[in-house]
Amino acid sequence: MFKERSYRGWVQSDDLVSFEVKERETDLFILAGRVLEKQARESILSNRADIELYIKKHPDFYDALDPILPADKAPDIINFMCDASWKAGVGPMASVAGAVAEFVGRDLSAFSNEIVVENGGDIFIRSAKKRIVGIYAGDNSPFTGKIAIEVGPSENGIGVCTSSGTVSHS
Fold this sequence. Notes:
Elements lengths: L16 E7 L2 E7 L4 H21 L1 H5 L12 H13 L7 H13 L6 E5 L2 E6 L3 E4 L13 E4 L2 E8 L9
Antiparallel strand pairs: 1-2, 2-3, 3-4, 4-7, 5-6
Helix pairs in contact: 1-4
């Protein structure tokens, strides 16, 4: 079920510790001030439960290829995904990896001032200093290891999607 993500081995940080948390289809690589595996897993399970329960009640959410409006009193992560889908002109599930990364990152921010959560190329970064995000576009791409994005400090966090369209379904 889990795809090998060799690019994670390229990550270098002298001020953060790294760890992975996997739960069903969710496969996160996290950098934080300390290992927060238990807190990350709790956040993953909570956010996944919100998404899965919503899909059971609203199956059109899962299959929609175009933006849709959330139901009244939808969970925050569903509202976030629907808002993102309207901005990008796609179905809300296109944002699921980024939404999970961001919501887990927000939750972990209560335990660490510096947080990076990567979920298959979708990344949430909350940092007091600039961070460099390298791009992995596949083993045979001339861009892999040659392109990076500099992300400035962000107290509230910032999302970055580095999916190339050639590595996975993202």
